[in-house]
Specification:
This protein is of the alpha+beta class and 140 residues long. Helices cover 23% and strands 38% of the residues. A hairpin with a 2-residue loop joins strand 5 and strand 6. The longest helix has 14 residues.
């Protein structure tokens, strides 16, 4: 068994939910050499998150953004942490709800996701900037 770690920086994405499968595979070509294994992806930020969901219809990602904005509004009068802007505290809450990591099986050099599944970067800030991912590959 072998274990390797890779740190990559994603380009800045606008607020919303973005498919990042290609970003990861382009940055970590070692995935293609793994017959059977596991890829663990961890985002090193508190105002962005990761999840796996629909990769075919882009309206799903827009609906996610709309729902999370309604569920966790900006400018709630009870927020105490507000000095970094009205989008900051809601971004922390959204990131905690979705979580900082995903794990994906690797089979024959490919992510073994379902046919309609993709990895989402969930950018919860208006101007979040570049996001760092720590990727751990565990291979046979």
């Amino acid at each position: 068994m072998s274990i390797s770690q890779h740190k990559i920086s994603l380009r800045p994405y606008p607020r919303g939910f973005h498919l990042i499968n290609r970003d990861i595979l382009d940055a970590i070509p070692d995935v293609r050499k793994i017959k059977a294994g596991l890829c663990h992806i961890f985002i090193q930020h508190t105002s962005a998150s990761l999840t796996i969901n629909e990769n075919a219809d882009p309206t799903v990602r827009k609906d996610f953004e709309s729902h999370f904005n309604k569920m966790v509004p900006e400018n709630a009068p009870y927020y105490l942490h507000n000095y970094e802007g009205p989008d900051d505290m809601p971004a922390h809450i959204k990131a905690s709800l979705l979580g900082p990591s995903v794990s994906i099986p690797i089979t024959d050099g490919h992510f073994n996701l379902g046919i309609w599944q993709g990895i989402y970067l969930c950018e919860h800030r208006d101007h979040g900037g570049s996001r760092n991912l720590l990727i751990t590959l565990i291979a046979d």
